[in-house]
Design brief:
Layout: H1 3-28, E1 34-36, E2 43-46, H2 57-63, H3 76-111, H4 113-126, H5 131-148, H6 154-178, H7 183-191, H8 196-234, H9 240-248, H10 259-281
Helix pairs in contact: 3-4, 3-6, 3-8, 3-10, 5-6, 5-8, 6-8, 8-9, 8-10, 9-10
Membrane topology: Multi-pass membrane protein
Keywords: Cell membrane, Membrane, Transmembrane, Transmembrane helix, Transport
Main location: membrane
């Protein structure tokens, strides 16, 4: 069995294991969960397992093929796919912005050690800012630009927020990759009189590929998460984030409904990471000793 098929088998076994754990806990767990303290103000340490809180997996799957909210509406899976396409497009824009910004930071930090000392701590600290606090700020700035400078659609604010999560792994991974060539190789390029750009193109960028590809996959998954959270925070319609919020409000009457956009978000993350894997397939000669994400 090749490594590719082995990965597919392990991925399928992982999905089966999650489904089995879900159904096992639903069967064995207490219907009202476990609460420490009073029922009203206590801390719930285990979730409820009754059908309204935790539907069976086959019920959630069957719900995908029923009408979204009425007889005249399309099947739920088709509505979710529409939201996935919208969110995927925005996440792709956010991913591109994040890759460009991350690469610029990495090049700057690799070129000048002083820049690395000054920027890297702030890049790390930037990821500790909660996205839900950052999103309204970006939305407000976008509204001001829209009023005074140029049209600024809501999806662009969502893409900027998605890029905020995407740039970090690219900056760190690319910095590690660009710094990976041995000193003897850099000295050899210098002895040939190679310029910085020639050294970058012929030595550092090829050496960075094994570190950059896992970072790009991680950035793609982060961009999807950022886009979904930003859609919820900004209230943009049409994507998975807003859909998730709207369907969650119907959870008491239709418990399986809110799980459909969650499944969509999971599939979207896999599609985004898989798209980057296709990009990596074109760079196989540079992928010896690829780092794991």
């Amino acid at each position: 069995m090749t490594s590719r098929w082995r990965a597919v088998v392990w991925g399928a076994l992982g999905v089966i294991a999650v489904v089995a754990l879900w159904e096992l806990y639903k069967w064995a767990g207490p219907a009202d969960g476990v609460v420490i303290g009073s029922e009203r103000d206590g801390l719930r340490i285990l979730p409820r397992t009754h059908d309204r809180a935790m539907p069976h997996v086959w019920v959630m799957v069957a719900r995908l093929f029923e009408a979204t909210s009425g007889a005249s509406t399309p099947p739920l899976w088709l509505t979710v796919v529409g939201g996935m396409v919208t969110t995927l497009g925005i996440a792709a824009v956010g991913w591109l912005i994040g890759v460009v910004v991350g690469m610029l930071f990495a090049l700057l930090m690799q070129r000048w050690r002083l820049a690395e000392w000054g920027l890297l701590p702030w890049i790390v600290v930037s990821q500790t800012v909660p996205l839900i606090a950052f999103a309204p700020l970006v939305s407000r700035i976008g509204s001001q630009i829209d009023r005074n400078v140029m049209p600024w659609p809501d999806w662009l604010s969502v893409a900027i927020i998605a890029s905020y999560l995407a740039f970090f792994p690219v900056a760190v991974g690319a910095l590690r990759g660009l710094s990976s060539p041995d000193a003897i190789h850099s000295d050899l390029m210098r002895s040939y009189g190679a310029s910085y750009l020639q050294t970058l193109r012929q030595l550092r960028l090829p050496a960075a590929v094994p570190y950059l590809l896992p970072a790009l996959r991680l950035a793609a998954a982060n961009a999807v998460v950022g886009a979904v959270v930003a859609e919820v925070s900004i209230g943009m319609r049409g994507g998975l984030g807003r859909m998730l919020l709207q369907m969650a409000q119907s959870a008491s009457a239709d418990p399986a409904l809110p799980w459909a956009p969650i499944f969509g978000a999971v599939v979207l993350g896999l599609v985004a990471a898989g798209s980057v894997a296709l990009l990596g397939a074109t760079l196989t000669k540079y992928r010896r000793g690829e780092a794991t994400a």
